[in-house]
Amino acid sequence: MSFSQQYARIVCTFLQESLSDMIRIETMEDDHTIVTKDGAMMSMIALEGALRTPGEAEIADMIERLRIALSPYLSTPGHMIEFSFIRDSNSAREKLSTLINKTERASSSLGLDISDVLDERRRVFSSSMVAETLLITVYTTPNVLSKEEMKEEAANVGKRISQVPVMVRAGNPENAMDMVHNRHTAMVDAISRSFTLVGQLNHVLEVSALLQEVRAALYPTTAPFKAEWTPRLPEWAKQNKTMKKFVNMPETSAEFAARDFSHLFEPKFDRQLATEDAMIENSRTVRIGDRLFSSFDMTVPPETLPDFNDLVMDVTSKSKEIPWRCTIKIEAGGMHSQSLKATFLGIFTFASPTHNRRIKESIDLLREIDGQMDTVVKFRMSFATWSPISDPEQLRRNAQTLTGAVQRWGNSRADGISGDQLATVLSTVPGATMSSTAPVAAAPLEHALAMAPLARQASPWEFGSVLYRTDDGKPWPYQPGSSKQNTWVTLMVGTPGSGKSVMMNSINFASAISPSSAGGREPLLPRMAIIDIGTSSSGVISLLQEALPADRRHEVVFRKLKMSRENSINVFDTQLGMREPTPNERQFLVNFLSLICGNGTEPPSSAMRGLINACVERVYYDFADSQTPRRYMRNEEPNIDRTLDELDFEADFETAWWEVVDFLMVNDKIHEASVAQRHAVPTLADLVTASQADQVASLYESANDGDTNQPIMNSFQRMISEVVRDYPILSTHTRFSVGSARIVSLDLMDVTVGGASAAAKKQTALMYMLARQVLTRDFFIDEADFRTAETKGSLPSEFLEYHVKRARVNLQLPKLICMDEFHRTGKIDMIVEQVIQDAREGRKFNIDIKIASQLIEDFPPSMIEVATTLIVCNAGSENSIDYMDGQFRLTEGEKRVMRYQLTGPSSRGAPIWAMFKLKDGSVRQKLNLTLGPAEIWAFSTTAEDVALRGRLYESIGPRLTRQVLARRFPGGSAKSEIENRISRMEEAGSDLSTEQRGDVVGDLVEELKRAAYLINDDV
């Protein structure tokens, strides 16, 4: 043992200052207030951070508003505010594990095995994210009272103490001064409210949570599990007051003599916290429990006002693994702390004229500021880092890195030798003590606040199946479809290559495995309808299919829609047994037919829209049971014929398909009834006949079509006939079916037309609406609609119980409608109107809507108005930024993010700018999506990667494909490798054909298949 260590221990022994002596926490006054050994009141506010990523102007405004709010409290003695900032990668690992475990439990309850994805998340996230804690400790000392008030309160306290038993080792509930407590409570409420008003998410901690934070800082290894430790509160503070089952036996002579009753009460909080040894190892090192600490004070403040985020980025850039913390103590009396210095400077200016004169001028300037332009406060700052006791070399490296970063931070100075290293370490523990070994600096409150960690980013979600991160590694969870938002309408924007499709797939995957989807008695996936042009979503579908047991993989499907009668979809289909559409289905039909009868860019005239409504009403009337229902014909549906024969159903030439539907339903043949009903309902072609009915024709035969100047009846009949002729998919009863699938992705590539012409946009919009209808017909079912229909007679009573049960189950299940490549629809009014209708009714039916496009201009203002989430992967152009500025009033900092920081996916993740409209405000943040290589490979939409992935899926299966691709190409793409191989072949003089270029991918496939044998010998 060195001389310095012996000396330090001798001094500590002589002073008899144990760890519990130096922790000044004693007892509690109320649910949020601690009483210290000095009679001060202490509360703690957890400051999560800013809900908007602030720029320089926003930070300056925030600081000014906080300065105005805090100045009244810090202009007189008795108040102190302490900012505590803690970063620890080890805590992050446990927090991330908690978040991922929650997702794992939810996915398991849904019957999904995604262990490989979640294991990869644990590994990838742990290396890129750091846990962060930001606390504000508020102190109010008896000095806040006047002499008269102090005298009165001292008398009251003395009187109360005389009436309670002596309890030396237990917290005395009568130590607190009521006036101090009242003023303290008012200050805490004012500070919390002030931070809320400037957009900082915060809440005042209860005493138990406060003590857990103190303990977690004392013993960092317990930080990830801090909530598992519960302090023993006084009996009066416990919510469930019961008779104590055990009491401690007397220990001291005073307790045996009944002069001290400490053993009958809960121990003081300092004794509950100081449960580990604390030893000074040397002048720079302290051991507390199983950790070595090195701490130092800021001895010379920065020359300039640096941003705290710059300090965080500096430390993080060296290593994310360095655990560290700092405290900033701000208290009243800044000018008083300089009064003695000012007196001596006035006397001894001659000793060093230039230097002393400058100091005197600085003090004079502060004196002019104090009380006029600002409040001058005391300012002290201390830092600490730690390591396992088995690795003092790591502690030395950590301390060097942290000290260097602090000294670069505004050119400040730091000193690790304070005279009492344990006191310096404890001064960095939030709430442990008001004392500090750091020299006092006087500063305007505005400058002190400018150095505080006030520009940290915060997520309003504690948990989330999507995990973003900030630029400096703070985890930022997001839960799609959560109760924090009134509705769930997400718009995504990004040009090709910006990572938009991967982002969409990632969020869709998160929605599929969301905890909100789980919890039922039986595994039940959410309902998801994904509409896309191309195979962008095939990766997430494959990932979900592979995660399901073999007998449930039919629940997740990817289908390509074809322009053929074999894929026909009848938009006039109704709910089982319903003789007419529900109100929601009727509105869809009007929108769909308006799109057919419009010119492709504008909605039809009001007369045409009126005719459409009349024809929809008439066509269902014509095919009702009492009118001219379609007749049942054998051999149209052989399976139905066999079922009817088995049930001894007697049919004749007058038998209607509706009779068959009702009979099958009574016999509990629900699937067969739904197939039979396809033949009972009207089709698009029947509208021509409906329009010729006297009740319709008499109203509209004299009206003209404004576009063609033809009679509106002729135009309507012509356009309906043309659509039936030109679109085989709309020409007959429904044949397309996705069976019992719950998650369906529909590729519209083969039924849409590229180009910017009105006809191309019209066809694309029609197919989007058709896909939306076939995938979401039962998303919007309402129990009230069925009861009304049964009362009106349009739903036979035998169907009611079935539909009521469906509607009630459906209401509880989360549902998602996702549309990609929305720009292809051309902002046609009818599809926009349909989306807005879905958005407004989505909350009622628990529906989350996500729509992606290349530019923000692809969304009209009416859609942007109903959106509750906007995710920007790439702004696209200055025009797009101006458009967003007009819609959202972007700050200059947000515009800079759009212009320069949304650079597309890289090894550091995919940067985005996101906006979330919550019930109690909005969140606007610049974030990063970080995925593991296997997940990126699953979601990638790059053509070369999709080709490679698809061929390997066929050869070795999806899971092994993702594993081998992740090992070979951890960046998530093989595009550069494929391009390099082609380039080398061309440089060698080869003139490659398209087929030979495909062989390059084939060669790579064979290489990866051989590599797969090393991963799995069963391939």
Describe the main β-sheet briefly. 13 strands, antiparallel
N→C terminal distance: 61 Å
Strand content: 15-25%
List low-confidence stretches: 1-16, 340-345
How many distinct beta strands?
A: 24
* Rg measurement, Å: 36 Å
Quick one: overall form?
Answer: elongated
- Helix amount: 40-55%
The chain-level structural class is alpha+beta
Counted by DSSP, the helix tally is 38
Mean pLDDT: 86
How would you characterize this protein structure?
The protein is of the alpha+beta class and 1019 residues long. It contains 38 helices and 24 strands. Helix 4 runs antiparallel to helix 5. The longest helix is centred in the last third of the chain and has 22 residues, at 994-1015. The model is unreliable at 1-16 and 340-345 (pLDDT under 50).
What is this structure, in a nutshell?
This protein has 1019 residues and is of the alpha+beta class.
Secondary-structure map with pairings?
Layout: H1 3-15, H2 19-22, E1 25-30, E2 33-36, E3 41-50, H3 56-74, E4 79-88, H4 89-109, H5 115-128, E5 131-140, H6 147-161, H7 178-197, E6 200-204, H8 207-218, H9 253-256, H10 269-273, E7 278-282, E8 285-288, E9 291-300, H11 308-318, E10 324-331, H12 339-347, H13 353-369, E11 376-388, H14 392-408, E12 413-415, H15 421-427, E13 441-444, H16 445-450, E14 466-469, E15 475-478, E16 489-493, H17 500-512, E17 527-532, H18 538-547, E18 556-560, H19 583-597, H20 606-622, H21 638-646, H22 657-666, H23 670-677, H24 686-691, H25 694-700, H26 712-726, E19 743-747, H27 758-776, H28 783-792, H29 800-812, E20 815-819, H30 829-842, E21 847-853, H31 861-866, E22 869-872, H32 878-888, H33 892-901, E23 910-918, E24 921-929, H34 933-939, H35 943-956, H36 958-968, H37 975-987, H38 994-1015
